[in-house]
Amino acid sequence: LNPNNAVGKVGTVYLTIPPNRTGFGKINVLIQERYAEYDAVTDSSEPIPTTAEIKVIGHTGVNVLLVQKYKKPSIVIEDIK
User: Fold this and answer.
1) CA–CA separation, 71 vs 68, rounded Å?
2) Is the pLDDT at 62 greater than 90, yes or no?
3) Which of 52, 54, 30, 50 has the alpha carbon at shortest distance from 42?
4) Could you say which of 26, 44, 51, 58 would form a disulfide bridge with 66 (CB–CB 3.0 to 4.6 Å)?
5) What are the pLDDT digits (tens) for 42-61?
């Protein structure tokens, strides 16, 4: 599996990711049509807890992904006239 293919994908935190790249957490993400587990770090000032959704925004080393907390887009319903 190529970790570059994980960039832009949404996954789930398996082990809490400490804040400000102070340690590693673990994530599960679907890449190349299969689930993979990777070490992950974040630049966020708050930890990202287990079961939170994340988005992969880059990689920082061999099999270490840079992630941010993912917020699902809200659905907007417009009146069509």
Assistant:
1) 9
2) no
3) 54
4) 58
5) 999 999 999 999 999 999 87
Query: 16-25: long-range contacts at Cβ-Cβ below 8 A with a sequence spacing of 24 or more?
Result: 16/47, 16/48, 16/49, 16/50, 17/41, 17/42, 17/47, 17/48, 17/54, 17/67, 18/42, 18/47, 19/44, 19/45, 19/46, 19/47, 20/44, 20/45, 21/60, 24/64
| Residue scoring higher pLDDT (72 or 34) | 34
More confident residue, 59 or 1: 59
Q: What is the identity of the amino acid at 63?
A: N
Secondary structure class of 43 (helix, strand, coil): coil
What is the model's pLDDT at position 81? Answer: 63
The distance between the two most distant Cα atoms of the chain, rounded to a whole number of Å, is 53
Cα 45 to the center of its chain, rounded Å: 15
Read off the pTM.
0.85
